[in-house]
Design brief:
By secondary structure, the protein is of the alpha/beta class. It is built from five helices and eight strands. The chain has a five-stranded mixed beta sheet.
């Protein structure tokens, strides 16, 4: 069975984050989230909307201008060319093929980085330096509702086959131990 589509089909990997995923993270990490956040892969604004509902300010940027995007998302912004942080914390669902690069760049900007990624991100020798900066991992107990790729016209399924977690990386944290918390989106 074919599980991954070719990069040419996936294009920019826009998978709008289901609101319950963001709500769960905000619930469990609330006391550590500053008043201003940077969402550097804002897409159409799924994460931005949820964070703004908490009263926080969100600076929303994206490389691409997506049809149907919320107002206020600044486009044509390549995160990797940003030399100054726009906020002290980034909360995003990065393109997985570039997740390592996003995290490294955020840490170089002295930003905390919270990313929604497959739980398998915990393994991998090519990111040992990054994982030593991971202060927290919020692993979902159950599968998230399915996040279909932009433009997907195939069969829609209700839940993902992939286990997801929010990973939090801190520029001033270094340890071989990660604080792991199992969380449920059902009561977010």
């Amino acid at each position: 069975m074919k599980r991954l589509h070719h990069l040419k089909d996936r294009k920019d990997d826009l998978y709008e984050t289901h609101p319950v995923a963001t709500r769960t993270f905000l619930k469990h990490h609330a006391d550590k989230i500053p008043d201003t956040i940077w969402e550097c892969c804002a897409g159409r604004g799924a994460i931005v909307r949820e964070i703004r509902q908490t009263g926080r300010t969100v600076i929303a940027t994206d490389l691409n201008d997506h049809d149907g995007a919320d107002e206020g998302i600044e486009t044509a912004i390549d995160f990797f060319f940003e030399l100054q942080p726009r906020a002290s914390m980034i909360i995003t669902n990065p393109p997985y093929k570039l997740a390592n690069d996003f995290i490294r760049h955020a840490l170089n900007l002295n930003c905390s980085f919270a990313g929604l990624m497959p739980l398998t991100y915990l393994s991998g020798a090519n990111r040992s330096d990054i994982l030593r900066r991971c202060s927290a991992c919020y692993a979902f107990i159950e599968r998230l509702p399915m996040m279909h790729r932009e433009g997907w016209t195939g069969k829609k399924i209700e839940s993902s086959a992939v286990s997801f977690a929010w990973f939090v990386f801190e520029p001033d944290f270094e340890s071989d131990t990660i604080n792991l918390k199992r969380v449920s989106w059902r009561n977010a």
